[in-house]
Amino acid sequence: MAIYYTPCQTFGKCPAMQPCIRFKVQDTGRPKYLQFTGVLEHHSSRFVSSCAKVQSGTFVARVKHSDDVGFKELPVLYDDGYAAESLKDFFDIAKDMTKPDGGPPRWFCPTACGRPLDDSPTLLYLPGIDGTGLGLILHHKSLGKFFQVRCLHIPVADRTPFEGLVNLVEDGVKLEHAKSPGRPIYLVGDSVGGCIALSVAARNPNIDLVVILVNPATSLARSQLLNLLPILKDLHLPEELHSIIPCLIGFLTGDPVKMAMVNLKSHNCLGMAMKEYYESFCFLLPRVHNLADIVPLETLIWKIRLLQTAAGDTNSRLHDVVAEVLILASCKDHIIPSKDEAKRLVSLIPGCRVRYFKDNGHSLLLETGVDLMTVIKGTGIYRRWTRRHDFISDFLPPSKSDLRHFANEIPGRLHHLISPVIFSTKKNGEIVKGLVGVPEEGPVLLVGNHMLLGVDLWAIIKQFLAEKNIVVRGLAHPGSLTTKFESLYPEFSTFDLFRIFGAVPVSASNFFRLLSTNSHVLLYPGGTRESLHLKGEQHQLHWPEEPEFVRMAAKFGAKIVPFGVVGEDDAADVVLDYKDMMKIPLLRDLIQEITPEAVTSR
Length: 602
What we know:
By secondary structure, the chain is an alpha/beta fold. It contains 22 helices and 19 strands. The strands form four sheets. It has a seven-stranded mixed β-sheet. Strands 1-2-3-5-4 form a five-stranded mixed beta barrel.
């Protein structure tokens, strides 16, 4: 039997008062997580060559170094491994982890995360009511490429109060901050974990924290769970109901249909897709009874009381939170009113942002269609050493999952509907289909005209990815990348796709930096004036008189590739333009309200 593990800095202590870490055991059976007790001297990955069982749940082993090394960057359209582990793994691993060991809450590093990029920040996951710490199991591989992921595990029999959990996480945050003072620390809090994250952020305003709240339990006072607590405490429930109640709550916390759709492959045949879904759903349903082991009745009562304390304590500290906060709220959460609570928190926490998921339940991170790494990229909150997201140095290449996500959004569907065709000219003057005539080595500057609503830019971005595996860095209007108007599009939107696929706010400094890194840069000199042109302005250019970009491109020896777009203005007519909208009172008031806050590009 061989044991592999990914090391992590351990903040808790095992019963023997020695550093405690979890291992993934690979043998003829399914992978399991075991506990290892011993002193670890280094922080590189190791291979355990032999082990011997000395007592239940504890192993000793002889350890030697491996040649595992980090890496500096990932290729474009890399395989991010989203949902490489499934809900089947969740139930199997949780079954082992919920066995009582008498230990306190502890941190573990999922082996599926692997080794992240060099200089990657730390991400601490704070679990929800289940306490297993496996809530990120679908996201382990995708997050593990860009974060040092550590998850908090709270044993089933543990009764650590809320203040104790906050202290445990706070100690871990302070230790990480002491090791790398200039690097941000990410806290992903799920349900009650969101309360812990907010409390830690409120108590540590001088530490650079990025807090991601997933359906935070700060709204417990308006939750249906409180109505259940008197029944659980005061009535002598039959023994048969002890396992049924946690299962019922399990059905309420998540959407079984969306959970069963995780890991489903794309099939051209509807029958094959339905067969695979049916098998997944049938596998999932019998395992719901395992929730009674993960959260038995006594633990459930304790967790609801813990939630009451957590919500009250956290709400009293909200005015002290100055960290960067992003809320992921499910609109079909049947446990707590997450949608309304997100609106309340946005009004109370300065700079707080939100993304709504209209078709998901309380267990958002365990349902299909929600890739946390894609959300982090799209909201522009990933950073390594800076206090604010840097669109160039902090940019992460799009993955295959990002491309699939693009296909399901409006730009992707529109791209499929219109089926654009691109031609290029080779050096000998021959016109060919595709991008053969465009240089692959940068710096390259693509300069062209916008059609109505700028739909053409997605065709260019998609074609470069598909044909040349190149990310075209578009110089976009700053207003499309600012957070000022996010309240107008709180769901994951086209503007989030801009960030995922490399858009950069147009400015001389950003243009300079892109060319200096030999990038392929996409520039529309006409900008939004062309994409939002008036009636009768089809095919008209609105370029500035001074082509500043030519001098900048010449400085770096960039190849300038001019292009033209045709077809859209011939197929669509403008029915209502800016002048018409200013004559409509409701639209005029809205335009006048947002115009003073708009960012200008020139």
